[in-house]
């Protein structure tokens, strides 16, 4: 019986050895830490020593005490094997999870392509190797129109299909990444100028066939910019900048692709810097709202403020809106920035209505905003979050923005007015169909462009135009705001002809939130008696 038990222990030892050696060794190979190799060697030595001890026992008479000790050793060996196997398995799973997170952090969640982080890392590695390669920046043309008119779901499916097509056209050694929105970037390895242009043509050909998405057949073009390493730059910043410039030129000139050349670099360094910083400024919340009062010239009554976006810099300067607003309106960030402006403006109007007095807040909408199907629901959500009267919220839309898509503009304006929101037709008189817009659109306020207002005291024609506009708008039951009021003489002239409201440096330049609160304190203090009694304040 004892001999049989000893044989059983030997068999157990051999089973433990078989279970531990190969799997544990395989697991250890997947672990990067040398200490696990040392631990594995110790455990293996223990198992071999125990097996040898059992063999020694078989060659001599075995007592029950020795048999008991053998059982204890066998149990200890089994326990250690189980612990080490579980520990190594846990380490393996941790490593797998870490690898998965690494891949996830470098993958675009929508298209499953690489993202900006991986592309940047790969680009730096490619530069360090020194072999020639090309960067291709590709931006879809009119993608925002598809996104806005057909919905984001269709736009997302289109991006997925485009990514798949491009990836299938590349060699395995090449890399494609989605940098964000409708912008893709590629690295084509071991190419010269001729073969790189062939690759760009291949990308153009890939886009020729229509994309079948739901019930739609979509045809979309791509603007491509190319920069070669090392000819067009020795570091990632220069290569990306030059590829961006080439892509911008391709889009501006309606070309399929453009290879960077210093002769095409007509963009000022300052403008390039602004373009590259817009996304970071949005993420870091660098933008700030300034507010310009709108007053009645007859009674000095405050109607409200127009919210105007500004971009303060760390050195204390402010980038001019004329520099960055046109760039924002052409970028994929316009929707996000508009939403930020709307939320901030409504939040501040809510605070001022609570702490000071009811004031209207005016916000500008671009042509892209008018096409945004999610705009009206977003405004409704903001008003629920900060419950001010919708009539105290005014959206200013220019004639040019309306004329880009008249039917869509009518739809958006109708939905906004049905909520009780006020609509202002901005820059009135500068378009080519002003009178028809007055008739067709339910705008309650007309803002006369500053180009007419600023010369009414010096130019009889401008005075006649402003006066005629004012009379026409009043006959149609609309209020009028004159922009660009900068002098006492202009103020008095507008007061004499019955202009409803004025806006300009004569009242106040655009000022930040803190200064606006100080301005409100001063306004209320100077007009405290008449405001309390409910009368219109008089001009002091």
Put simply, the count of helices is: 21
Helix content: 55-70%
Mean pLDDT: 80
Which consecutive residue ranges, at least 5 long each, have pLDDT under 50?
529-540
Major sheet details: 9 strands, mixed
Principal-axis shape equals elongated
Strand portion:
15-25%
**Helix/strand/pairing class, anyone?**
alpha/beta
The end-to-end distance, rounded to whole angstroms, is 118 Å
From the alpha carbons, calculate the radius of gyration and give it in angstroms: 36 Å
- How many β-strand stretches? 16
Say what oligomer this is. single chain
Features:
elongated, 540 residues, alpha/beta
Polypeptide structure, described:
Helices cover 56% and strands 17% of the residues. It has 540 residues and is α/β, with parallel strands linked by helices. Residues 529-540 have low confidence and may be disordered.
Q: What's this, in brief?
A:
This protein has helices at about 1-30, 35-60, 65-105, 115-130, 145-150, 150-170, 195-205, 235-250, 270-285, 320-330, 335-355, 365-370, 375-385, 400-405, 405-420, 435-440, 450-455, 460-475, 490-495, 515-525, 530-535, and strands at about 135-140, 175-180, 185-190, 210-215, 215-220, 220-230, 255-260, 290-295, 300-310, 320, 360-365, 395-400, 420-430, 445-450, 480-485, 500-505. It has about 550 residues and is α/β, with parallel strands linked by helices.
Give the helix/strand layout.
Elements (H helix, E strand, L loop, with lengths): L1 H29 L3 H25 L5 H42 L10 H14 L3 E8 L2 H8 L1 H18 L5 E6 L2 E7 L3 H14 L4 E3 L2 E3 L3 E8 L6 H17 L4 E3 L9 H15 L4 E8 L6 E11 L5 E2 L1 H9 L4 H22 L4 E6 L1 H5 L3 H11 L7 E6 H6 L1 H13 L3 E7 L5 H7 L4 E4 L1 H4 L6 H16 L3 E5 L4 H9 L4 E3 L9 H14 L1 H6 L7
Parallel strand pairs: 6-7, 9-11, 11-12, 12-13, 13-14, 14-15, 15-16
Antiparallel strand pairs: 1-3, 1-6, 2-3, 4-5, 8-9, 9-10
């Amino acid at each position: 019986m004892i001999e049989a038990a000893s044989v059983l222990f030997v068999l157990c030892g051999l089973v433990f050895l078989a279970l531990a050696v190969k799997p544990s060794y395989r697991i250890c190979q997947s672990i990067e830490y040398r200490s696990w190799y040392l631990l594995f060697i110790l455990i293996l030595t223990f198992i071999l020593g125990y097996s040898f001890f059992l063999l020694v026992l078989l060659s001599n008479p075995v007592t029950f005490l020795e048999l008991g000790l053998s059982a204890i050793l066998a149990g200890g060996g089994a326990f250690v094997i189980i612990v080490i196997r579980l520990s190594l398995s846990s380490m393996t799973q941790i490593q797998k999870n870490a690898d998965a997170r690494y891949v996830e952090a470098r993958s675009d969640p929508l298209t499953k392509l690489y993202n900006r982080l991986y592309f940047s890392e790969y680009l730096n590695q490619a530069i360090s190797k020194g072999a020639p390669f090309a960067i291709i920046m590709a931006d879809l043309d009119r993608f925002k129109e598809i996104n806005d008119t057909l919905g984001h779901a269709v736009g997302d499916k289109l991006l997925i299909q485009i990514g798949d097509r491009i990836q299938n056209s590349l060699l395995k050694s090449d890399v494609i990444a989605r940098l964000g929105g409708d912008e893709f970037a590629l690295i084509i390895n071991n190419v010269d100028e001729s073969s790189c242009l062939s690759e760009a043509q291949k990308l153009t050909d890939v886009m020729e066939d229509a994309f079948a998405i739901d019930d739609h057949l979509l045809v979309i073009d791509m603007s491509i910019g190319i920069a070669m390493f090392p000819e067009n730059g020795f570091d990632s910043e220069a290569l990306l900048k030059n590829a961006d410039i080439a892509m911008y030129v391709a889009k501006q000139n309606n070309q399929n692709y453009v290879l960077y050349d210093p002769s095409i670099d007509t963009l000022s360094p300052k403008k390039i810097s602004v373009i590259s910083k817009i996304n970071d400024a949005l993420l870091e919340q660098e933008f700030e709202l300034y507010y310009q009062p709108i007053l009645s010239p007859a009674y000095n009554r405050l109607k409200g403020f127009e919210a105007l976006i500004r971009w303060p810099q760390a050195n204390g300067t402010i980038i001019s809106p004329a520099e960055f607003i046109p760039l924002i309106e052409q970028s994929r960030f316009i929707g996000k920035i508009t939403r930020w402006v709307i939320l901030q403006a409504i939040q501040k109007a809510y605070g001022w209505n609570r702490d000071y007095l009811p004031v209207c807040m005016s916000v500008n909408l671009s042509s892209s905003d008018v096409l945004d199907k999610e705009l009206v629901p977003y405004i409704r959500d903001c008003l629920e979050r900060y419950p001010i009267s919708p009539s105290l919220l005014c959206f200013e839309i220019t004639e040019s923005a309306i004329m880009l898509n008249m039917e869509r503009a009518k739809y958006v304006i109708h939905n906004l007015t049905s909520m009780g929101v006020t609509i202002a037709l901005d820059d009135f008189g500068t378009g080519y169909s002003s009178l028809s817009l007055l008739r067709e659109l339910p705008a309650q306020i007309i803002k006369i462009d500053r180009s007419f207002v600023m010369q009414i005291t010096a130019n009889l024609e401008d005075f006649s135009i402003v006066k005629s506009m004012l009379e026409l708008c009043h006959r149609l039951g609309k209020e009028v705001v004159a922009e660009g009021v900068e002098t006492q003489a202009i103020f008095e002239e507008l007061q004499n002809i019955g202009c409803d409201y004025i806006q300009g440096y004569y009242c106040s330049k655009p000022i930040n939130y803190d200064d606006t609160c100080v301005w409100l304190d001063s306004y209320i203090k100077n007009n405290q008696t008449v405001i309390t009694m409910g009368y219109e304040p008089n001009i002091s």
